Structures are given as C-alpha cells and as structure tokens.
Amino acid sequence: IPIQHISAHMLRDMNRHGSAEHIREITDYIRRSAPGFILRTTVMLGFPGETEADFEESRRFVEAMAFANLHIFTYSPRSGTPAASFPGRVPAAEAKSRYRRLAATAAESKRRFVESQCGAFLPVIFERVDSGGFARGWSDNYLELRVPAGTVPLNRIVPVEATAENTASNLET
C-alpha cells in the first residue's frame, strides 16, 4: 500500500489521491479478511514544505497501522518536475534525522509483526543453505525463516512453525 505520506496538504502537494481514513479502511479490511497477511508500505519524507508536524503525523500513522515492512525514501528533486521548484526544502540534516526516527518506528513495527507470527505454522520454501549451515526460506507472508540445513528439503513448500529462534528477521545474518 504505497501511502507516500499521510498529511492531507502534503498529499495534495504531491498530487496524490488518498487519505488516512481510506488507508485505515483498506488495512482494516485486509486484516479482517486475511489474518497474518503482511502489510507493507512506502513513505516519502522531506518533500518540499514538509514540516515537523507533517512528518510526525505520518510517523504516528505508520506506527498505529503496524505495517510489517516499510520502504522509506527521502525526497530528491528531479529536474523538470513541478516539485523541483517548490519552496520549503527540508535541510539534509533534518531529512536524515527524520529518516532515522521513521526507520526506528518501522523496525519496532516489523518486530511486533514477526512476534505475532511466532507459534504459527507457515508454508515456507527453503531455497538455499547459508555459510552458517542454515537453510533459509520465505513464508507466504514474506517472513524469512532459518533452520538447520538437512532438517527441511530445499525448493519445496513445507510447513514450519515460526519461533523466536528461527525467524531470520530477528537473527544476525
């Protein structure tokens, strides 16, 4: 769900059509219809005119929506686009600070998602063995799992219980 931003005036300036309420409705519907479904989004920060309040509005929304994965990117001007001439550029140091804060929010949200999956048996396809002797694979809800090589077949879907120990997202890689 590419939200880009959540502030109404920022969305208008970006020429994006959507709203926090619409995103909330979509995510609520998905969560009711498909529990465990991974919800991912993309957020831009540092768009010209973005204030600290605008950024915090988006950060708090992302936090509340508990997205399992978040792609964050910082606005960079592109020659010939309307936004390239917009006033109110966010200083690079401030954009970096906002990036770090949003990344921390995203990491906590991902941790909570991974934790919510522990105890569930997930269909996983293990595709490779890493240098540490672990088979690594991905579940249908895009959770990476790691188990000792030889305990699961490669390149076949097998049910595996997600645990705090085998969710590769929580392990050093």
Describe this structure in words.
The chain is an alpha+beta fold and 173 residues long. Helices cover 35% and strands 21% of the residues. It contains four helices and six strands; from the N terminus they run ααβαβαββββ. The chain has helices at 8-13, 20-33, 52-65, 92-117, and strands at residues 40-45, 69-74, 121-129, 134-139, 144-148, 157-161. The strands form two sheets. The protein has a four-stranded antiparallel sheet, with no helix packed on it. A two-stranded parallel ribbon has the order 1-2. The mean pLDDT is 90.
Pick out its properties:
173 residues; alpha+beta; two-stranded parallel sheet; 4 helices; 21% strand
What's the topology here?
Layout: H1 8-13, H2 20-33, E1 40-45, H3 52-65, E2 69-74, H4 92-117, E3 121-129, E4 134-139, E5 144-148, E6 157-161
Parallel strand pairs: 1-2
Antiparallel strand pairs: 3-4, 3-6, 4-5
Could you tell me the mean pLDDT? 90
Number of helical regions: 4
Q: Which overall shape is indicated by the principal axes computed on the Cα atoms?
A: elongated
Describe the biggest sheet? 4 strands, antiparallel
For the CA atoms, what is the radius of gyration?
Answer: 19 Å
**Strands side by side in the biggest sheet:** 5-4-3-6
Order of helices and strands: HHEHEHEEEE
Give the termini separation.
Answer: 28 Å
Strand content: 15-25%
Helix content: 25-40%
Counting DSSP E segments of at least 2 residues, the number of strands comes to: 6
Structural class: alpha+beta
Unreliable parts: none
